[in-house]
Amino acid sequence: MKNKPPLNQFLLKHGWEAPKHAFIWLVLLFAFFPLYMILNISLKTNEQFFNNPLTPTAPYEWGNWLFGWEQISGSVYVTIFIAFTATFLNLCVSICAAYFFGRYKVPGSNFLFLLFLMQMFIPGVVNLIPLFSLLKDLHLLGTFSGVIIPATASAQVVAIYLLRNFIEDIPQDLFDSAQIDGAGDLRQILHIVIPMCTPIIMTAAILDFINHWNDFVLPLVVLGKEELYPIGVKLYQLDGVH
Amino acid sequence: MKQVSFKQLKYHWRACLFVLPSLCLLLTFAYFPAWGAIYYSFFNWDGGYVKEFIGFDNYKRAFSDPYVHHGYYIVSILVVANLFKMIPSIATAVAIHRLRSAKFGYFYRVLFVIPLIIPAIVMILIWKYFFDPNFGILNAFLDFTHLMDLLVYIDGIFHWGVFLESTSPAWLSRQELIIPALIIWGFPWVGTIGVLIYLSGLSSISDDIYDAAKIDGTGPIRTFWNIELPLILTQVRINLILMIIGTIKEYGLTLVLLGNTGGPGGAGLVPGLYMFRKAFYDKETEMGYACALGIIMFLIILMLTYVNQKYVRVDK
């Protein structure tokens, strides 16, 4: 039998809920404000913007979006290409390496893993200058490979770290039975590791993709030519022009 | 996991091939340049073919360089500020975690991921506009809430000469205001990824502990200090280490907000930016000196990480 709770019991039960919701909404309000401003300003002419920057004003200037797209469409394609290729390459190498670390413990594999983890402590700025001259010697300056390969080299560490734990958790029996059926390591990766680890692989892929999407300094330094700039660098440059 | 001893290695050598692509990439594009940085730091080198061995002169110069001193002074202020800027993330995570309805918790979690789609560079550019003296939101907000009057009043006491009656402070072009601007940046300082990490830690606290606390009659604040904070210290420490490393390495933010000079009088010239400038922007590039600056930064990060590991203890 259900009784309707009296008011004081309701308050006792839910009274502390309202401030929590209010606090979260307040934080969300500030967190979404930049997004709102981007959408808002993007629909204004300069004049409308100077008169009233805060609230939306009719008529909306959808032409801005067209103009903007004309300006950056090239670099959007470049960024998509770089981010997809780098993420794909990263997944290929890091699934293989994580498979090795997750399944076998050979002498020295702990040291190797430590070597991978240590990479996170080297600040990217320290590496930038020698990397620049290394890429110059390899004739990779001004090419997409010059961005994709070094970016993969540093991004793989996080992916390997994430994937290793999950591969370790796959039951050993599965691998054993596959081996009895005559499956080699590559087959075990394709038919056991990838299907079993799809969620974490997708998480790693998304994290990696966002990283490449935001990457700013490496493309700025490596890709000297304007028509090759990905979106981050392009927007930085446009900020100076308009 | 399969234990493979040294003798069995000849049956399992194929498995070792799988780590090779990663290892090659790592050694070539991470460790070889790092080694190069150490090597070049002993040379007077402008990035060309000629270089001259000068021993520790680059390091000696760095220790007496006023720009370097100023850079690390700014960074230490920013690290302390960022320490306080971790609080909103923790508070938000705790608020979401304590919600009774799981549905709302999930809903807010999704909402917090959405601002992540804004590319980092766009976020910095929009803040650059917020700081604008005439059209910026920050000044409009301060005027609207009359906080500006308060600032003018405080200025009158301390004679900063920064906030004056009926003028709009130019946050990014006044030498005195650059550090406050770098601190205000990113308000309300709720890092999405940080919140998610804290939430994963909070959700692993078992209900028994909460029940026990309830029986003892602990209030919401004591619950936080005595239960939640100690039990998510692991996550706090991860974020702390990442924050310190990130703050010291950071130069993209200052590069975009203040340009490659680091603002008027180089007030915002953080070490990373100074190094970046020495290597790529200055008329006479000094790659060797920049490498030495990088090595110093690496040593500082390594030291701080070590101190962090050793003294910020997690007792469970």
What does this structure look like?
The complex is a heterodimer of chains A (242) and B (316). By secondary structure, chain A is an all-alpha fold. Helix content of chain A is 77%, strand content 1%. With 316 residues, chain B is an all-alpha fold. Chain B has two domains: 7-59; 63-131 and 171-311, MetI-like fold (Orthogonal Bundle). Chain B has helices at 13-17, 20-40, 57-63, 66-84, 87-98, 102-113, 120-130, 137-144, 147-158, 178-184, 192-202, 207-216, 220-231, 233-249, 252-258, 271-281, 287-311, and strands spanning 2-3, 43-45, 51-53. A two-stranded antiparallel sheet of chain B has the order 2-3. The mean pLDDT of chain B is 82. Chains A and B meet through helix 2, helix 4, strand 1, helix 5 and helix 6 of A and strand 1, helix 1, helix 2, helix 5 and helix 6 of B.
